[in-house]
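pipeline/complex-builder :: batch 7 item 3
reading input block
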Amino acid sequence: MKSTGILEWIIEKLLFTCAALSVLTTAGIISVLAFETYEFLREVPVLEFLTGTEWTPLFANQKFGVLPLVGGTLLVSAIAMVVALPMGLLAAIYLSEYSPSGFRRVVKPILEILAGVPTVVYGYFALTFVTPLLQRFLPELSGFNALSPGLVMGLMILPLVSSLSEDAMRAVPRGLREGSYALGATRMQTALKVVVPAAFSGITAAFILAVSRAIGETMIVAIAAGQQPRLTASPFVPVETMTAYIVQVSLGDTPQGTLEYRTIFAVGMLLFLMTFGLNLISTWLRERFREEYA
Amino acid sequence: MKKRLDLLFQIASLMTLVIALTALGALVWDIISDGASRLSLSFLTNIASRNAAEAGVYHALMGSIWVIALTGALALPIGVAAAIYLEEYGTRSRMARFIELNISNLAAVPSIIYGLLGLGLFVRLMGMGQSVMAGAATLALLALPVVILSTREALRTVPNTIREGSYALGATKWQTIWHQVLPMATPGVLTGLILALSRAIGETAPLITIGALTYIPFAPDTVWSKFTVLPIQVFNWVSRPQAEFKTNAAAGILVLLVLLLSMNAVAIVVRDRHQRQGRA
């Protein structure tokens, strides 16, 4: 009898260890990034890194201003959001407020396929299909640019936005809708003035998660946006994102322990902080939303 | 007027779905029309080559299979154990809440960050080098949040009466979980695992970051072998300027998509069988 008690105790501790591994993963990410970033910042002043406008660590004349990479990342992400947020929200409104349930059952799995396509495939699509297509209308568009990967990334993120927003809207109690209809409102008025505001924190959480996903997306931009760090607002010229830079260095044979090698961890740290902050806000908003309609 | 506006809005909303589905159609059509003609048995059995017409995906395909099998072997036991703890043991504790919050945050960390972790931890610190093991360990960490979440859902569907019946017969907590709860949750767990792995098999960025090579002249024969995977091979071909290599990339994507679809088909079969059993 006693031995089974000990066994049960051991098993519980083992299970706990596996669960705690996730905390160790976070700790591991932070320590690996922090260690190399610290080494990097001993040679490059923080201020130069965060405010410099030239990024040329792989050239003879090294400059370590990360702003061109941040700018490229934000530019592509902004284009993606222009596609994903309004379209995702409208799709969610249609699925939650208008569509017959049979239609939903067919469309939702297809949207899931859209979300499950490997990103390298989207990169191929952006480079070999969308860019040439856009060039027909925009002759000044270069072969690598921010526009095409931005649009394709928006398409990739759309299912995430629509599915999370739809969940939030479906959680809004029926009574609110019925009250609105009873006052003579149309379905559009009910959707836009009652359901969307009621689901606001849930929808915002979805939007923020989408931004975070766009900032961290790698292969689409590595394939179709180019490898030229430049601080520009023009979507027609090649840019380089933070993620694409990490890929570029990883593909070369930069020796371990050099300053060039450490740049990818410093850039990674910045990327991690940006996405982690956004994720925390998103989680917090979702929790609040759950409390509202528990 | 109000009615017409409402109809217009409904059509606009529907259009977003139509546009999204059309784009998906264009993507599939683009890849099939570019790559289908290049597909052949020799494309599957040939190795990477400087000559586009002779190049194949054999080593990359083998690399993908090795990495994914090992990823599953690592992520399944750890993920299931973690889920059992959170769902059956620590549901009320503060620590469990913290772990839960942490897992949902990890699920949204960009995959390339996992690559940097793998590079620093597995490749350098643990000295695994750019091996199948290092790649699988990295992808397992990436897949864990998904496995944990889906396992928890599967555990939640097991009715409490099963647990109570088992306790009433004198079984301990672990006996109840191992002999009653887990078998009933297995189909759900497997579905979640397959979905997690089908995401992992398309992952490119973390493996490039840990230093998986773009050209490998051999297939892995142990977990310590160096390796490349299908998505990296595709990326390598896409990055070349010559059109023939783009065709190869499209054909490589088709192989990858077939692999993905068959994994998803297995998941659907498992889920369906489970649902039928549940009703019986």
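note: Residues 45 and 58 of chain B are 5 Å apart (CA to CA).
queue -> next item
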